[in-house]
Design brief:
The structure is a single chain. The protein has 331 residues and is mostly helical. It is built from 12 helices and no strands. It starts with 13 loop residues before the first helix and ends with a helix.
Length: 331
């Protein structure tokens, strides 16, 4: 029996040989990617950061701690809502850390893609199946706008004076655009389901899982309170932060006016897929505050200061937490 030459011996596939180095490279890339995105965004929006930081530096410092506290409560509340959308019990500390990191990712990518991606990876890392995790994200995304709309409708009952803001009611063209966008989305989904047959089974499995989990969650009072209560509290916390920043800058509007303005502005402009709502919601919010009689410069300064406090100040720590979670394989 003749021996094969060394060159003719079967070799292990190159992918298997390089897999450890490829895995290390991928993990390093994922670790550094958030910081890279942060650097790009900082360069692109440097003037807003500089002007907002300067305005906050000259603001009344007595109100700023309240804004910082409300911002922190927003991350805790976000973790509470996420827990309400999952039947499994999640560890409280890591869940809050994941939402802090998700907040940073959410301000880099539009339509909450970054926050959902971080949360999806966190849920899978803690034993939640992919189907149940995606169903949780869908339920979370559905409950938030419904809860905000309910708060928007109920708020004037307790604070009748806020209804002076008639300018925020969408005009006919805006309503037609919203209806056309929703109709186009439904149409595209139906066409894809009809034409692409391999999509049917995964979609049906997802819908079945989502409906089953929603039924299970709504039989548990603690989950209902976390999901719906937290979703209702979330916009109020955000608006209260704006009110605190505005008070520090001399905004002469009541808390109820600022909260209702935010509810109406974010509902009217929230359909535009901007990173973290930055842009359309800010413009609508400035318009709303001016509609209540606030000077344009003070309203603009309030929103710039709010974005600096809730986006830019926590962004670097949030990215570092995201990097640490990726490095420790918690995501």
């Amino acid at each position: 029996m003749s021996l094969l030459p060394l060159d003719d011996l079967p070799r292990a596939p190159a992918a298997l040989v390089r897999s450890p180095s490829v895995a290390r490279l991928a993990r390093r890339t994922l670790t550094l990617l958030p910081l890279l995105l942060l650097s790009i965004w900082a360069v692109a929006d440097w003037h807003a950061v500089r002007d907002g930081a300067a305005r906050l530096a000259s603001a009344d410092p007595r109100w700023l701690p309240a804004g910082i506290l409300l911002t922190g409560l927003g991350w805790v509340n976000a973790a509470w809502v996420r827990q309400g959308a999952v039947p499994e019990r999640l560890p409280a500390g890591p869940l809050v850390a994941s939402q802090f990191a998700a907040g940073a990712a959410n301000h880099v990518l539009p339509a909450s893609i970054g926050a959902h991606a971080v949360t999806l990876r966190f849920l899978q890392a803690h034993g939640v199946s992919f189907a149940r995790a995606t169903a949780s994200l869908a339920l979370y995304s559905l409950v938030k706008p419904i809860a905000k709309t309910l708060v928007l409708l109920v708020f004037p009952v307790f604070f009748p004076g806020v209804l002076m803001l008639g300018q925020l009611v969408p005009d006919d063209r805006t309503l037609i655009l919203i209806a056309a966008t929703a109709g186009a989305g439904v149409t595209v989904g139906c066409v894809l389901m009809t034409v692409v047959r391999p999509l049917r089974r995964p979609v049906f499995d997802f819908v079945r899982t989502a409906l089953t989990d929603a039924r299970i969650l709504h039989t548990r009072p603690s989950r209902v309170l976390a999901l719906w209560g937290g979703a209702a509290v979330s916009p109020v916390l955000q608006a209260s932060t704006i009110a605190a920043v505005g008070a520090s800058l001399g905004l002469q509007l009541s808390w109820a006016q600022v909260v209702f303005a935010f509810l109406a502005a974010s509902t009217a402009a929230g359909a535009v897929p901007a990173p973290g709502g930055i842009g359309p919601v800010d413009a609508a919010m400035v318009f709303a505050l001016v509609g209540y009689g606030a000077p344009m410069d003070v309203a603009t300064a309030t929103l710039i200061g709010y974005r600096v406090m809730t986006v830019w100040l926590p962004l670097l720590p949030g990215m570092l937490v995201l990097t640490a979670l990726v490095h420790r394989k918690a995501l």
